[in-house]
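Table 4 source record.
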Amino acid sequence: MKKNVGGFDKIARIILGIVIIGLGFYFKSWWGAVGIIPLFTAFIGWCPIYAPFKMTTDKSSKE
């Protein structure tokens, strides 16, 4: 897997994931578990949605 998540995108995903998980705890909803997805994609540096469209926000992997 070639990395396709760049610096700003990674920070935004981490913040979004934490917010979703926090809201899940606040509202006592299992939907907070969805916050794991942006956190996971930020930490591995690869987004499966970007792959079929050959998109990337990672400047080091741009050609």
